[in-house]
Amino acid sequence: MANEIKLQTPLTSEMLEKLQVGDKVLLSGTIYTARDAAHKRLIELLKAGKELPFNPAGAVIYYVGPAPARPGKPIGSAGPTTSYRMDPYAPALMDAGLKAMVGKGPRGQSVVDSMVKNKAVYFAAVGGAAVVIAQAVKEAKIIAYEDLGAEAIRELKVVDFPVFVANDIKGNDIFKIGVEKYRR
Amino acid sequence: MKEINISQLIPVVRKLCIDANYYASPDVVEKIKFFMEKEESPTARDILALMLENHKMAAEEQMPMCQDTGVAVVFVELGQDVHLVGGDFYAAINEGVRQGYQDGYLRKSMVDDPVIERKNTKDNTPALIYTEIVPGDSLKITVAPKGGGAENMSEVKMMKAADGIEGVKDFVVDRIKRSGGNPCPPVVVGVGIGGSFEQSALLAKKALLRPLTEKHPDPKWAAVEDEILERINKLGIGPQGLGGRTTALAVQILTKPCHIASMPVAVNVNCHAHRHESAVIE
């Protein structure tokens, strides 16, 4: 039976060691949003040896392009986008200190290998649970690339953001293990 | 001959865009509950329960169920005895989409140039509009917002007649297998068979509009749908791809006659939000 674990950012390798695929995690603290277009720019900065708009050490990136917020709300609906599109960029960010990614759908082998090497994890959030997730977001502010609209990088303060461990630091992959378990 | 002023369309399309995104269809809710009862994986049951909770909260909070509020796919059935007056028909539909996505706090997800510039149009237009002339003097509009994650898992294959019905079944099952957790399962699988290359794709999208609780009117195709659904739900992919028995809620097929040399088969994958709303203007 899967465990339920509370985690507070910034994350450390020690905090991630105990996680197993399938565990439910309630994530609290600061996380950063980025998807396709923002990732492209982050990687250009890394290649040029420049600083990122946020400190990548122990950081969590959430693959999301939220809907607009209603007046008085920090954010609109904010479920995960499909993660494989960020696969070409993820290893370089983990090399820079990124400790967790949140999205939906499986990752490629190069990303899984990089997670093992860098002791990082990948969390699956529930695609289509966007309103439930939005309630876990207490504050949101754009910290870079405002011109990208929904794709701008936002700093989110979250409390008990519900996610599942999809890839742990040992290279286990729930998208393989879970599927094999229920295949008939 | 009945006259319908174009300006009547704008508020109707606006509301359809908002309602389709805020309110889960009763048939989707029913199907998720049905599969949740049978689901063997505790994680999968957790996820399905979260989806149902999300439906309720979306309606309460007046927020879209999913942040990907999609491209606005609009199907129009125009009665042949209707005379449209007062302006440009397609401009009016686009204005309705513009207002709906703005006023409903829906995400704008359209880029103008598909490859080189990819600049957001900032109002979710242009809509994708398909118009069909039908008998009668009314105008039916269906708005089906379509998210990118599931759409990207769709495919058209020009099959050979020799591939037969088993070939069709294998192709559809394999398409879902290769999609894994990407299209936000449990998915709804629209299948278009026959016609031509482009018509099969449109049929697959239209097949998604049939209520999930309704069977195919032709028993031989209803049996094919049931068999494909059963095979898909044995793949083990489960909700969000984390493992489980609920990979698809339904498989829905539409067919058309085709050339003696051809057998086009299209699979259009839809996520579990499965949004569409219709209205009739008389």
What does this 3D model show about the protein?
The complex is a heterodimer of chains A (184) and B (282). Chain A has helices at 13-17, 36-47, 90-95, 109-118, 130-136, 174-182; strands at 4-8, 24-33, 60-62, 100-103, 121-124, 137-144, 153-167. With 184 residues, chain A is α/β, with parallel strands linked by helices. Chain A has a single domain (4-13, 23-182), classed as Fe-S hydro-lyase, tartrate dehydratase beta-type, catalytic domain (fumarase, Alpha-Beta Barrel), CATH 3.20.130. In chain A, strands 2-3-4-5-7 form a five-stranded mixed barrel. In chain A, helix 3 (90-95) links the parallel strand 3 and strand 4 (100-103). Chain A starts with a strand and ends with a helix. Chain B is of the alpha/beta class and 282 residues long. Chain B is built from eight helices and ten strands. Chain B has helices spanning 9-22, 26-38, 42-61, 89-103, 148-151, 164-179, 197-207, 219-232, and strands spanning 2-5, 71-79, 82-85, 128-134, 139-146, 155-159, 187-195, 248-258, 263-270, 277-281. In chain B, the strands form three sheets. Chain B has a four-stranded mixed β-sheet with strand order 4-2-5-10. A four-stranded mixed β-sheet of chain B has the order 6-9-7-8. In chain B, helix 1 packs across helix 4 (89-103) and helix 6 (164-179) runs parallel beside helix 8. The radius of gyration of chain B is 19 Å and the shape is globular.
